[in-house]
Amino acid sequence: LSAGDGEKALLGARALADDLWQGRLLEAAALAQLGRAKEALEVVELLIEERPMEPAAWFNKGLLLRDYLARGAEARVAFERFLEVNQASDEANLKQVMQVEFWLSQDASK
Question: Alpha-carbon distance 34 to 41, whole Å?
C-alpha cells in the first residue's frame, strides 16, 4: 500500500465488518430461493444469537418460517418479537411493521 492508502483500507474494512450481518441476510434469502430454507433459517438464527436486537433478522426469521417452512406458530412468535425489537430500534421500518401487523391479524382470524 502506498502512503495514505492504509487508512482508506482500514476504514473500508471496518465498514464492511459493520455490514456483514446484512450480507448474512442476503445469504439466507439466496438459500431460501434455492430451496434450502432450513439452511437459511440456521443462518438467520445464528445472526439473531449475535444481534438479538436486530429487527431485520427477526422479520426474516418470520418470513422463512411462514413462507418457506409452513411453521405458522413459530412465525407468529418471530413476528411478535420483530415488533418488540423494532419498537426499540432507531431504524424502525414502517412498511415491515404494517406487513407484520396485517399478517398477525389474518392469522388470528383463522
Answer: 13
